[in-house]
C-alpha cells in the first residue's frame, strides 16, 4: 500500500516504505526556498506524526477525507488529501461538535483572550478575557494554556514590522481575525519569536479581494497555464507558492483581458507541443500535462496575496513556548500558525492542516500532562 504521513495529512503515491516516504517528504520540505530549515526536529515531527493525525481525525473526530491523493505546490509527488466536502467546514464543524459532546470540555463563545497571567516564578497560571459584546472582563485561572490563535497575515503593521515588502499593496487570503494576538500576548511575558520575516503568498488570488481562487485554479486542476500580460508563461504553475473571461477564440479572450493575443497563441502552441512530448523544457511542469485545444477558453486575472506566516512563537518539539533566551515558559504551549520554525522559509502546500492537527495533539497532550 502507499506509505502514509505528510501534508494535509496523507503522503505517498506509490508502493514504498514509510522510511522512503519520509525521505521524499523531507527532500521536498528542504527544497527550494525552504533552504533546509524545515528539516529541524520540529518540522520532522510534523511529518512523522501526520499518518496518525489523519487516523485520529477520522476515527475520533468523524472527519471524512477523499481517498484520492493530490499534488499541491512544492511537492514532487501526490501526497495530499482534502476533506470529502472540499471545505474547511468539514473539519471545524465536526471537531466543534465532537468537543461539545465531551462533558469535561467547556466552550465559551464571544470571549477574547487579552492577557496571559503568570505567577512570581514566571509560570502561566491563567488568562484574562473580555466579552467584546458586553465589555465584561474576567480572569480564567488554570494550570496550562495552549495558544492556537493563528498567524498575523491580516495585520499589515505587523507584517511590515518584520518584512517591509509585505505592505498594504498586498492583500490577504486570511481571516480578518489573523492579527497575531497570541504572539503579542506571549511576547509580553517574555516569549521569543522566530522566522517572522518569512511570509508566504498564494499566487492565484482575486486581484480585488485577495480571496483564494480555487475555482479554475491552474495549480490544482492541471488544465491551464499562467501567462503574463505579454502572453508568455513565466513560472512553473505548481511551484511554491477574480475576473474570469470566457470566449470562443484565443484572440477574443486575450483582448478582453488585455493580453498580447499573438504571443498567447504562440504560448499555447508551445504548451501543446510540450504536452505531446511529455516534458516542459521551460519550467519543468511537475504534474500531469493536459493540452489546451478547442474553445471555449477562460482567462482569469489573478495575483498573489498573503497566505501564511512561517514565523511565530519559538517552541520545542513538545510544543512548549520558549523565552527570548530559549528557556521553556512553564505552562505555555503553542500549536498551528501561531508557532514558527516548522515550515522553513516557504511552506509546502497543504501542510498547515498537518501542522494544526499534529501540534494541536502534541500541545494538548503535554499541557494535560503538565497540569496533572
Automatic annotation (TrEMBL):
<dbReference type="Pfam" id="PF00890">
    <property type="entry name" value="FAD_binding_2"/>
</dbReference>
<keyword id="KW-0274">FAD</keyword>
<protein>
    <submittedName>
        <fullName>FAD-binding protein</fullName>
    </submittedName>
</protein>
<feature type="compositionally biased region" description="Low complexity">
    <location>
        <begin position="29"/>
        <end position="38"/>
    </location>
</feature>
<dbReference type="InterPro" id="IPR050315">
    <property type="entry name" value="FAD-oxidoreductase_2"/>
</dbReference>
<dbReference type="InterPro" id="IPR003953">
    <property type="entry name" value="FAD-dep_OxRdtase_2_FAD-bd"/>
</dbReference>
<feature type="domain" description="FAD-dependent oxidoreductase 2 FAD-binding">
    <location>
        <begin position="59"/>
        <end position="352"/>
    </location>
</feature>
<keyword id="KW-0560">Oxidoreductase</keyword>
<dbReference type="InterPro" id="IPR027477">
    <property type="entry name" value="Succ_DH/fumarate_Rdtase_cat_sf"/>
</dbReference>
<keyword id="KW-0285">Flavoprotein</keyword>
<feature type="compositionally biased region" description="Basic and acidic residues">
    <location>
        <begin position="19"/>
        <end position="28"/>
    </location>
</feature>
<dbReference type="GO" id="GO:0033765">
    <property type="term" value="F:steroid dehydrogenase activity, acting on the CH-CH group of donors"/>
</dbReference>
<dbReference type="InterPro" id="IPR036188">
    <property type="entry name" value="FAD/NAD-bd_sf"/>
</dbReference>
<feature type="region of interest" description="Disordered">
    <location>
        <begin position="19"/>
        <end position="44"/>
    </location>
</feature>
Amino acid at each position: 500500500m502507499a506509505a502514509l504521513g505528510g501534508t494535509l495529512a496523507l503522503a505517498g503515491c506509490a508502493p514504498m516504505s514509510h522510511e522512503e516516504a519520509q525521505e521524499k517528504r523531507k527532500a521536498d520540505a528542504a527544497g527550494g526556498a525552504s533552504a533546509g530549515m524545515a528539516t529541524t526536529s520540529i518540522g520532522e515531527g510534523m511529518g512523522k506524526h501526520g499518518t496518525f493525525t489523519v487516523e485520529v481525525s477520522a476515527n475520533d473526530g468523524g472527519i471524512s477525507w477523499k481517498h484520492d491523493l493530490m499534488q499541491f505546490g512544492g511537492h514532487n509527488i501526490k501526497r495530499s488529501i482534502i476533506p470529502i466536502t472540499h471545505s474547511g467546514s468539514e473539519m471545524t464543524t465536526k471537531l466543534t461538535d465532537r468537543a461539545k459532546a465531551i462533558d469535561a470540555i467547556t466552550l465559551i463563545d464571544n470571549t477574547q483572550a487579552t492577557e496571559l497571567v503568570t505567577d512570581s516564578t514566571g509560570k502561566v497560571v491563567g488568562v484574562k478575557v473580555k466579552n467584546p459584546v458586553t465589555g465584561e472582563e474576567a480572569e480564567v485561572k488554570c494550570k496550562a494554556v495552549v495558544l492556537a490563535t493563528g498567524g498575523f497575515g491580516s495585520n499589515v503593521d505587523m507584517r511590515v514590522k518584520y518584512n517591509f515588502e509585505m505592505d498594504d499593496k498586498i492583500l490577504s487570503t486570511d481571516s480578518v481575525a489573523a492579527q497575531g494576538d497570541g504572539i503579542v500576548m506571549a511576547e509580553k511575558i517574555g516569549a521569543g519569536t522566530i522566522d517572522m520575516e518569512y511570509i508566504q503568498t498564494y499566487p492565484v488570488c482575486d486581484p480585488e479581494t485577495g480571496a483564494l481562487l480555487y475555482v479554475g485554479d491552474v495549480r490544482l486542476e492541471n488544465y491551464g497555464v499562467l501567462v503574463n500580460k505579454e502572453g508568455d508563461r513565466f513560472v512553473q504553475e505548481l511551484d511554491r507558492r477574480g475576473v474570469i473571461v470566457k470566449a470562443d477564440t484565443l484572440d477574443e479572450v486575450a483582448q478582453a483581458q488585455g493580453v498580447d493575443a499573438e504571443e498567447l497563441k504562440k504560448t499555447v502552441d508551445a504548451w501543446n507541443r510540450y504536452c505531446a512530448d511529455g516534458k516542459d523544457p521551460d519550467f519543468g511542469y511537475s504534474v500531469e500535462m493536459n493540452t489546451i485545444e478547442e474553445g471555449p477558453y477562460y482567462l482569469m486575472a489573478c495575483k498573489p496575496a498573503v497566505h501564511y506566516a512561517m514565523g511565530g512563537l519559538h517552541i520545542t518539539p513538545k510544543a512548549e513556548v520558549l523565552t527570548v533566551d530559549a528557556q521553556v515558559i512553564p505552562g505555555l504551549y503553542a500549536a498551528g500558525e501561531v508557532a514558527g520554525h516548522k515550515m522553513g522559509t516557504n511552506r509546502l502546500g497543504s501542510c498547515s492542516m498537518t501542522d494544526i492537527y499534529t501540534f494541536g495533539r502534541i500541545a494538548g497532550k503535554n499541557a494535560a500532562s503538565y497540569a496533572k
